[in-house]
Amino acid sequence: MVKESSKTKQGKSAVSSKKRRKVVAIDVFKAWCKGCGICVAFCPQEVLAQDEQGQAYPKNLEACIACMQCELRCPDFAITILTEERLNPATGGVSHG
């Protein structure tokens, strides 16, 4: 029982020390973006903003934590978050291509 408890503690510490995914780029496909602002509203770090036409653009890429909320909530699939993991599947990321 003690061993299981210590394993749980080790698992929790491993999860909390997990490295943050490095964001390389946020791709907004302007032809598909209708300017609804959902991505801007759901971004917890205020990374995205809207231009004069209402279309989204990354205003503060360095603050992005790769939570993927903008990509997941975009009703038009106009946003793609490009992380090092996605660009290099050998690191365990998802391959898109």
Descriptive account of the structure:
This protein is of the alpha+beta class and 97 residues long. Helices cover 30% and strands 18% of the residues. It has four helices and four strands; from the N terminus they run H-E-H-E-E-H-E-H. The strands form two sheets. Strands 1-4 form a two-stranded antiparallel ribbon. The protein has a two-stranded antiparallel sheet with strand order 2-3. It is globular and about 40 Å long.
Overall pLDDT, averaged?
80
The percent of residues in helical segments reads: 25-40%
List the secondary-structure elements in sequence, H or E.
HEHEEHEH
How do the strands line up in the largest sheet? Answer: 1-4
Count of separate DSSP helical elements: 4
By helix and strand content, what is the structural category? Answer: alpha+beta
Content of β-strand: 15-25%
**What is the count of β-strands?**
4
The radius of gyration computed from the alpha-carbon positions, rounded to a whole number of angstroms, is 17 Å
Brief summary of the model shown:
The protein has 97 residues and is α+β, with helices and mostly antiparallel strands.
Please give the structural blueprint.
Elements: H1 2-16, E1 23-28, H2 38-42, E2 48-50, E3 56-58, H3 69-73, E4 79-83, H4 84-87
Antiparallel strand pairs: 1-4, 2-3
